[in-house]
Amino acid sequence: KMDDDDDDIPQLSSHTLAALQEFYLEQQQREGMKTSQGFNQYSIGSIEEDWQLSQFWYSDETASCLAKEAVVAAGKGGKIACVSAPSVYQKLKEQDGKDFSVCILEYDRRFSVYGEEFIFYDYNQPLNLPENLLPHSFDIVIADPPYLSEECLQKTAETIKYLTKGKILLCTGAIMEEQAAKHLGVKICKFIPKHSRNLANEFRCYVNYASGLD
Questions:
Q1: Cβ atoms of 204 and 193 closer than 8 Å
Q2: What is the pTM of this model?
Q3: 136: left (phi over 0), alpha (psi -120 to 50) or beta
Q4: What would the pLDDT profile of 140-187 be if each residue is shown by its tens digit?
Q5: 3-state helix, strand, coil in the chain (%, to 5)
Q6: Where are the domains of the chain?
Q7: Which DSSP string do the residues of 3-15 spell out, in sequence order?
Q8: 58-207 to CATH, choices 3.40.50.150, 3.40.50.20, 3.30.1360.70, 3.30.230.10
Q9: Are 157 and 184 in contact (CB under 8 A)?
Q10: What Cα–Cα distance (Å) separates residue 99 from each residue in 2, 8, 145, 149, 208?
Q11: Which of 74, 136, 183, 192, by CA, is between 20 and 30 Å from 164?
């Protein structure tokens, strides 16, 4: 009978409904903050993580620390490239008007809101880059390969070596230490990067120059 079909419709528990309503409310508040005056489009979290793209933003403190390190390493009027490291790019952009330039190479096209500084990047095609991105034109390259695999690191390393004049700051898992040394000649730092959400894998920074991260 038709009347009985209603029984088959799954009912959400009051707890689930309350959680859903809270979630939607938070979303609305977040959107409200974005549209309210004074919202900084470069602040970390202005574009939310997409785990399907293996995205995990750094904590505010870590992003600040890495951004400061990049500015010092690049020097006055320096050029910085952020490869798959958008939260560092956002921190650098918060220092508006400072004496350096920066661009972001990223697979996620949501970052195209940053205009000409955004360069679409797919690590599977490490040298498929715009012609105006000249070889060895960046004083430092900061990179955070999206996957903890040697293949991903090796391909990202091709991009890094093409872009950098010499200095490299790599963020990846502690388990990649051997491969990082092999493909990029970088060594592990004392500084331990943190993410806004805890990751299961231990994360570390690696450099090939005398940095402030030790």
A1: yes
A2: 0.75
A3: left
A4: 999 999 999 999 999 999 999 999 999 999 999 999 999 999 999 999
A5: 40, 20, 40
A6: 58-207
A7: GGGGGGSPPPPHH
A8: 3.40.50.150
A9: yes
A10: 72, 64, 27, 35, 23
A11: 192
